[in-house]
Amino acid sequence: MSTANVDAILQNIGSEEYFPISYEELEQGAKQKMSAGAFGYVRSGAGGEETLRKNEDSFKKLSIVPRVLSDVAGLDTSINLFGRIYPHPLLLAPVGMLKMADEQADLAVAKAAAEHQIPVVLSTVASYSMEEVAAAAKGPKWFQLYWSNNEEVSFSMVKRAEEAGYEAIVLTVDTVMMGWRQEDMRNRFSPLKLGYGKANYETDPVFLNSLGSQDSDSIIQGILDNIHHPGLNWKHVAELKKRTSLPLLLKGILHPEDAKLAVANGIDGLIVSNHGGRQLDGVISAIDALPHVVESVNGSVPVLIDSGIRRGSDVVKALALGAAAVLIGRPFVYGLAVGGQNGVEKVLENFIQETKVSISLSGVSSIKDLPSLKIVRA
Ligand SMILES: Cc1cc2nc3c(=O)[nH]c(=O)nc-3n(C[C@H](O)[C@H](O)[C@H](O)COP(=O)(O)O)c2cc1C
């Protein structure tokens, strides 16, 4: 482990072309590559961006109290989720409309993640269809579902995901309507309207059959009509659970009572998330919500987290507070914008290495021991 770590640092130091290392540099790099509208779409949060800022600030308010002299030579970062072992406690969060960042979009991301056996969670509003992504990359893949008003479209997409080899379904529950995105209004930018998120819809027979006409404008309008689904409730969740044999997770849980209801409805896993501060502004940061959700489910299902994870020490804090794994969001999108597939690989390599260093320097040598690590507010 120690040698591998030195190698990773030297690789970065010795490489001929400088690639941004920190999140701040990645963001700046992406800003230079992307249109103002696209960059603003990725960077921004909803409302006054209170929650966007809070996500990162809350991590900074937590401190690790490390142990020393505990022999961390045999570091094991593997995790087990739904019976499958993954080498790292990391997944890639569902991010839609990635053609905004790079033409190869989800294909590039899935190939980069496959290099490390990191699961990608493909968005409903991906730029390539779930079948195209499955054909391009053989690594582990989960499918994220945005509920459709026409629920048969939801069931059809889930069936396609099963057939294409996706291994879990993630239902996003904090997006029954779009958050109040001021930056996009300012930039007059809607990637959905530009067609960046239509791939899974224009390949779905049930969706297509539901349209009066199948021209491009009708497809976009059909997506907009389906994606606004304020009626979503626990009955839909229970029905979805019946319709799939895959593990079903809910993404966007912040309240411990919702976590309990999810377990009561047979849900297999939770993702504590506030959608990266893009939905309801003013909500609790994900990392502050995590311990309460973990406590409320009492080990019955794995609890994952995203929103504000920027570096290896954030991963350590989340796992120490009871997360089974973390999802990386904006950092990989910026990596994609800066350097395509290679850029995503760079971001992941640095995340993996910094996570390993951070776990080891905390005095812990396996993920399962991380919950005993002391975290304080200081
Ligand atoms: C540009 C962008 C697009 C996103 N698209 C989706 C999506 O299609 N489905 C979804 O469930 N979450 C989506 N999210 C939310 C992410 O899955 C994740 O919750 C969020 O990025 C975590 O916050 P962070 O990036 O600040 O760490 C998106 C986030 C961004 C930044």
UniProtKB/TrEMBL annotation:
Listed under catalytic activity are: a (2S)-2-hydroxycarboxylate + O2 = a 2-oxocarboxylate + H2O2; 2-hydroxyoctadecanoate + O2 = 2-oxooctadecanoate + H2O2; mandelate + O2 = phenylglyoxylate + H2O2; (S)-lactate + O2 = pyruvate + H2O2
Q: Which residues cross the membrane?
A: none
- The broad enzyme category this protein falls into is oxidoreductase
PROSITE patterns (alphabetical): FMN_HYDROXY_ACID_DH_1, FMN_HYDROXY_ACID_DH_2
Going by the UniProt record, its keywords in alphabetical order are: Flavoprotein, FMN, Oxidoreductase
- UniProt key word Flavoprotein: yes
- UniProt GO molecular function: (S)-2-hydroxy-acid oxidase activity; FMN binding
Q: Which SUPFAM superfamilies match?
A: FMN-linked oxidoreductases (SSF51395)
Q: Which InterPro entries does the entry link to?
A: Aldolase_TIM, Alpha-hydoxy_acid_DH_FMN, FMN-dep_DH, FMN_HAD, FMN_hydac_DH_AS
Give the record's family classification: Belongs to the FMN-dependent alpha-hydroxy acid dehydrogenase family.
- Put simply, this protein is called L-lactate oxidase
**Species the sequence originates in:** Peribacillus saganii
Phylogenetic lineage = Bacteria, Bacillati, Bacillota, Bacilli, Bacillales
